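Hello,

Our lab assistant flagged a job as stuck in the queue for most of the afternoon. It eventually completed. Since we weren't sure the result was trustworthy after the delay, we are filing this so someone can double-check. Below is the sequence as submitted and the structure that was eventually returned. Let us know if re-running is recommended.
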Amino acid sequence: MPARYRERLLESCGGRLVVTVDRDHCLLVYPLPEWEIIEAKLNALPSLNKQARLLQRLLIGHATELDMDAQGRILLPAMLRDFAGLKKKAVLIGQGKKLEIWDETTWNESQEEWVAAVQADDGELPVALEELSL
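-- returned structure --
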């Protein structure tokens, strides 16, 4: 973990993290207290809803508790590395209360796709985004 994240993670959760998968084929890294909130919300979803069950299986089923070592490193299990297609270089992206880990090539290709999609989309913003002030 870069020093700027390491300090905060040590303060907020003692370096105890939960890593899980995301539909975009990256990994999500949560401080343990934040993950517990997400997990409770996922568990509260209606069990008869197919999409809710799939999301629970994906996120909760792959959730792995990890501890940072003294140098701020984490050892990702092979299953998680394989899911995200992590090879030689990885990119760590801060996303508010969580971090994302991407294979560098996948991250670069995805960024180009996202920019193109935003430029091509002339649609209306969802109400929640219309109220957002940056």
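-- support follow-up --
The delay was a queue issue, not a problem with the job. The result is valid. The chain has one domain: 3-103. The beta strands are 16-21, 27-31, 64-67, 90-95, 98-103.
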